[in-house]
Amino acid sequence: MPADGLTKALSDSIIGWPVPTLRDPTDVIVGINASGICGTNLHTYHLASGSPEAPYLYGHEGLGVVNEVGDAVQFLNVGDYVIVPDNVDDGQWTQEPINFVRNKFFSGAPNEPSLPGLQTAYVRVPFADNSLIPIPANSSTPFEELLDYFFVDDSFATAWSGLSWSGFQPGDSVAVFGAGPVGLLAAYSATLRGASKVYSVDRVQWRLDVAASFGAIPINFANGTGSIADQIRVHEPNGVRLTVECVGYEAEIANGTVDSTIKIRNMVDITVPNGGLGLLGVMATGDAAFNDVAAELANLIESGKAKPSFIVSDIIDIEDAPETYQKFDRREIVKAVIRTKLE
What we know:
This is GroES-like protein. Its cofactor is Zn(2+). Residues 25-136 form the Alcohol dehydrogenase-like N-terminal domain. The protein is an alpha/beta fold. The protein folds into two domains: 2-154 and 290-339, Quinone Oxidoreductase, Chain A, domain 1, CATH 3.90.180; 155-279, 3-Layer(aba) Sandwich (Rossmann fold), CATH 3.40.50. 25% of the residues lie in helices and 25% in strands. The protein has ten helices and 18 strands. The chain has helices spanning 39-45, 128-131, 143-150, 155-165, 181-192, 205-213, 228-233, 262-270, 291-302, 321-329, and strands at 2-8, 11-16, 28-37, 56-57, 62-69, 81-84, 87-88, 104-106, 114-115, 122-125, 133-134, 173-177, 197-202, 217-220, 240-245, 271-279, 314-316, 336-339. α4 packs across α5.
């Protein structure tokens, strides 16, 4: 089956990969209907993360259909529609909260503890009862509706959680740094949860236009109209109550040069004393699980209150993934979803 793998920096390609089979009685095989190209992927895309002999297998966002179940699986059936989370249960009891780092995750080199990426046709999910997230969908659900549920474990859940980590309360003013997929969903989450004002900070104007479409105030720090703080203080003379960072260690200044510290300095500058900061972007290695908010977000989607799929700019075939990574790296798209044709 085809899979997307990074074999050297700035070069992914479609490779052949074995179709997975059940290994343990708690396993499930999921046929992937949709997988995402995430901003986190760009961090590894810029590095020599894989090789032709051991490709770095991409994809940690997935939605699909249960294709086969192990004998010990109790709560899932063939035909169920599920979200495949980034982090999966490792079968070990722990006292730590669910959003602490887990030991098994999708996307990476083809060895444990990482699992093959989700940008492919079929995946094996270990300890599936505790890993997969069922969604209220079936074979007649339009693909466009499936896309809303697609984000409940990764992008939307990350954005929602980051806003919570900042100490958000309804009525707060919020500045979100970054207008990529997670940044847009963080700003969107703030509007859904009753923020008084939401500011979206980026240097790509057409992405800021997307933020403006749901009521956020765009702050473009590269258009010559002043610093981030100066632009926000036109509206908030004392600063904002909260800031949320959705960029990571490859943050850029106005001319596109990377400065990993610039966003934190700006966040501190514009946040009021005793305000809050939420940090979401990748700063080092490691993943967090957000399964604890997935059910809440799925309920918002099912009720019609949330529609996070507005961030999807491109739906592609897996053969188009290498070209799409290049476009994403050039900031020409917001979010690409790979739609898989299952046999």
